[in-house]
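Hi R.,

Here's the chain you asked about this morning:
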Amino acid sequence: MPSAKGDAPAAVAASQAETPPALSSMASVVRKGLANSPEVNKSQTDRLVSGLSVGVARDAFWPTLSGSIGADTHSEGNYDLRLTQPIFDFGARAAGLRGARAQQRATDREAFGTHEDVALNSAKAYITVKRYEALVKVADDNIAAHRRFLDLADTRLGGGVADRAEVDLAEVRLATARATKADFEGQLASARSLYTLLIGEPPNGLDEPGMLSLQTSELVDIDVFAEQSPRVEQAIAEIAVADNQIGVERAALLPELQGEAVLAGDHDDSPTPYIGVRLVGPTFTGASQFRNVEIARAQKLAAEYEAQAVRREVKDTLSRFVDNDGALADEIRILKGQISRAQSLRKVYEDQFVLGTRSLTDLISVQNDIFGIAQTLVQNRYDRMAIQYEATAAIGRLQQELGLPSSLLDLSHTGGANPIVFVDEEEEPKT
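And the predicted structure, written out as tokens:
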């Protein structure tokens, strides 16, 4: 996990220098995606608000100063200036401050998670574009093979060793191959549009993306890694927010002891100062105060359920990576061998077709096998890459893996780098 204080510039530079060339283009794209994301900008604004809210909660321990001036039927005018200091409030302000700090932690982790989510979406948009570019290339190879079959059939027809049906069949298969390519090109256009929307520029000249360093062997205990997820940490902080809100609502049912210093008078008399204490009872509106306690308890229960749901989602992402990575890697290796053998067999069949010992159906059959294997090989390669990126983002390591600055840094349009400093637990001010 990245340091909560943010990566030092030297460490960031070193990690960027060590980034493999295959990931350099990906890192550049992800950086642009972060800079182009309104979600990232919003998360930074939310952090600012949560920091200010902690200050507001801390200020509640300070005395309050109020004043009034007016007139009534007994005097031509009166005024008072009142300084009030809370002495004992059954922990209401302390719970409010703890809740504000917990909310700040939750907002920090949410910002962390938002950066990772945006980075993942940018990376997946990149991967999807490359996936369909590869599928279009496979379709081009398929068209080339069927065009070659048509030429061979034409040659046989011209030599009088075949009938027109073979040529017609070859033309039908070539048209089908072209239709398949058109379908892939449509999906590629959609992928490019999404990429442009997320990154802010079209995907031109993208390098082939590389695999990250995360290995399934690292994820020995998925439960432990799930607890490191920024989304899980955010959910745990939200539970703390709700728990402290219960304390605030309970304290609202009880009186508050205050110290007062008052300066009061009217237009005829000189101001009279006095100091005292006051026991201020709660203001009840029906049973709303009691209901507020129940609402706070229900909100804490909802936060606990939310944390369970987030944990389950993260563990599912990690389990999918652990369960499928090895199988996909083995299948990719097998498919590479199969396609090499199938291509060699196609060459033999083409030679035999020219000699008249093979039919066009035999050529089409082996080409269909090659095309199917090539498609599956492309899909598996990028599927494996996608689930690895998803697992890496789930534990908050995607930007670190790409050699980018930690997502605890403000990657704004201005290119700033303001470290997020987590607020440590401090002793609440004494009233």
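The two ends are 38 Å apart (CA to CA).

Let me know if you need anything else.
M.
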